[in-house]
Amino acid sequence: MEKKNIDWENLGFGYIKTDYRYVSDYKNGAWDEGGLTEDDNVVINECAGVLQYAQTVFEGLKAYTTEDGRIVTFRPDLNAERMVQSAERLEMPVFPADRFVDAVTQTVKANAAYVPPYGSGATLYIRPYMFGSNPVIGVKPADEYQFRVFTTPVGPYFKGGVKPLTIRVSDFDRAAPHGTGHIKAGLNYAMSLHAIVDAHKNGYDENMYLDAATRKKVEETGGANFLFVTKDNTVVTPKSNSILPSITRRSLIHVAEAYLGLKVEEREVYLDEVEEFAECGLCGTAAVISPVGKIVDHGKEIFLPSGMNEMGPVTKKLYDTLTGIQMGRIEAPEGWIHVIE
Ligand code: PLP
Ligand code: COI
């Protein structure tokens, strides 16, 4: 199959229309059989539940070309499972997990010409999502829904690739205790837009959100979980009910322990202790692992000893092992790699 003529090495994280997308509709209490379409437009009523009350959830995963030329995705079953949890929290019907994986597989296969070549540094980002599609004016869940999957080839999420980021402690909250921070709902990202625009205006790459109840504990950023490394090489990652359970983070915990023999602590992390850490990184599908060089807390600058030029050594080992597994250079744990073709 011939690849599209795209400058893979210089792709940013943006939307490029690909040829096919998957659509399934939910009506009268059941999902239809679904299938691929070339139509990239969604036509819904002006009063659709998603437009009035933001009833929408989504997922994000990637397809990779491996060293031996296969196209694979990474743990799509966990994205399917998380979308079930997101849908349940927003009173939406569940799109069955096996059908989710099948829809992702069909969409990637149909867009194989857009899966970036091995070694290009780019990947095919996959965006499954669903939304309330029929008119809703009283505040209640919709009765009809649409599930879709589209794909877009992407490069690094942060400009500059793996150059360490400068982040600030945000005065805005992302998620409330007992709220929706633990699910992947569009409303959480709408909440973060003002904070990220303001951060960029002030010269920061991202926001570090604190727990809304006490504002003493580290939560996550707008689109990634945190990983810290202590001076004696223990990996520490914040535990909270109001952060998204990142699949990348959960995978990295296993990689750290089983592949690299590192100690891992998943626990509450206080802002006060951040200056003690040796390394910091942001992890997620889009972010992969993006190193953090500096954290600014209301004028107080915390420089990570790993510096502003490169990833810290433990972060680098985690990055190399995870991406090695995803690209087929390192043997994956059972069930982590889903072969598309
Ligand atoms: N946290 C937030 C708020 C996110 O949007 C994402 C991206 O999906 C993550 C964390 C990382 O999750 P994952 O590793 O499953 O992509
Ligand atoms: C992802 O990593 O898949 C996300 O959804 C994060 C988003 C900020 C692009």
TrEMBL record:
Its EC number is 2.6.1.42. Pathway: Amino-acid biosynthesis; L-isoleucine biosynthesis; L-isoleucine from 2-oxobutanoate: step 4/4; Amino-acid biosynthesis; L-leucine biosynthesis; L-leucine from 3-methyl-2-oxobutanoate: step 4/4; Amino-acid biosynthesis; L-valine biosynthesis; L-valine from pyruvate: step 4/4. It is an enzyme of class 2 (transferase). Keywords: Aminotransferase, Pyridoxal phosphate, Transferase. It catalyses: L-valine + 2-oxoglutarate = 3-methyl-2-oxobutanoate + L-glutamate; L-isoleucine + 2-oxoglutarate = (S)-3-methyl-2-oxopentanoate + L-glutamate; L-leucine + 2-oxoglutarate = 4-methyl-2-oxopentanoate + L-glutamate. Its cofactor is pyridoxal 5'-phosphate. The modification N6-(pyridoxal phosphate)lysine is found at residue 184. The keyword Cell wall biogenesis/degradation does not apply. Belongs to the class-IV pyridoxal-phosphate-dependent aminotransferase family. This is branched-chain-amino-acid transaminase. It comes from Candidatus Blautia merdavium.
